[in-house]
Amino acid sequence: MSHLFGYIFSAFIGISLGLIGGGGSILTVPILVYLFHIEPVLATSYSLFIVGTTSAAGAIQKFRDGLVDVRTAIVFGTPSIIAVYLTRKFLVPSIPKSIFTIGSFELTKSIFLLLLFALLMVSASISMIRGYGFLSRVKVDKSKINYPVLLLDGLAVGTLTGFAGAGGGFLIIPALVFLSGLEMKKAIGTSLLIIASNTFFGFIGDIGHYEMNWILLLTISSIAVGGIVIGHQLHHKIHGDHLKKGFGWFVLATGCYIILRELFFK
Fold first, then answer.
1. Nearest to 206 by CA among 27, 7, 52
2. Contact by Cβ (8 Å): 247, 170
3. CA distance 183 to 17
């Protein structure tokens, strides 16, 4: 029964991406851990592949609509790709299985990654609830792109993606608007291309470290991509702003649940 709900929520990942422009991928790790009962460290690896696949499908659609700035994606994405690959290849495997123990509580590698992911969910939910309306009013001189800060931000996002197995679109989109001067719609499309590149290279860094269940991985990814098609069809019929706020509250509740479960009810 839990697997059935897992497949249903996998479709929801894609639907949310197509309907509100992102956010659904943040649920990938919780779906894998709590519904498919996959070990958390392996779940972050699976998430990289699933998020990469769904983001690539979304980026293709945005590219066809002329809403992807390839040059900015390369500038931001290059250091980000390097960071996520090195993080998955060397840093994540080097984390000890038991980090420390306080009384009866033991902070394991799995709990650490889940808590990090939960904090990422809480941060992402705040962005969804607030919305990106304020970014559309930002006036940036496009002739003065802040390349040093853009490169550093790419490194930071890549490292975070490597540890958590999530795309980090809520960090990428504001950076593209403020530092590159992209308009909001093009920032969303460009972020999908960056996320797809980051997560795929992160997954490549995992190859050889874990034994993959390719049937399950490809099944979930296919369902999520199918959800994108549905989401794009609904996008022209349903206004996404209110849905995004509601989804943000759901993500916030899920993030808080993970924190409480892993710290107090394990």
1. 52
2. no
3. 19
Assess contact for 43 and 33: CB atoms under 8 A.
Answer: yes
Instruction: List the domain range (segments joined by +) for residue 165.
Output: 2-264
By C-alpha distance, which of 214, 79, 71 is closest to 145? 71
Q: Based on the structure, what is the number of domains in the chain?
A: 1
CA dist 132 to 2, 180, 261, Å?
A: 34, 16, 31
Cα torsion through 101, 119, 29, 151, rounded to 10: -110
Length of the chain (residues): 266
CA–CA gap between residue 51 and residue 56 (Å, rounded): 8
Instruction: Please tell me the pTM assigned to this model.
Output: 0.88
Q: Which residue bears the tokens 């590149």?
A: 197
The conformational region for residue 165 under phi > 0 = left, psi -120 to 50 = alpha, else beta, is: left
Helices (H), the chain: 2-20, 28-30, 40-64, 70-86, 92-94, 109-130, 147-164, 169-180, 184-206, 214-235, 240-264
Two structure tokens written together for 29:
């790790």
CB 177 within 8 A of CB 138: yes
Kind plus residue range of the DSSP H or E element containing 102: strand 98-102
**Look-up: residue for tokens 């958590």?**
164
Q: How far is CA 47 from the centre of its chain?
A: 8
pLDDT digits (tens, 9 = 90+) for 106-152: 999 999 999 999 998 998 888 888 776 655 555 555 556 777 888 88
Helix (H) or strand (E) holding 99: strand 98-102
Please give the distance of CA 217 from its chain centroid, rounded to a whole number: 16
Three-state secondary structure call for residue 44: helix
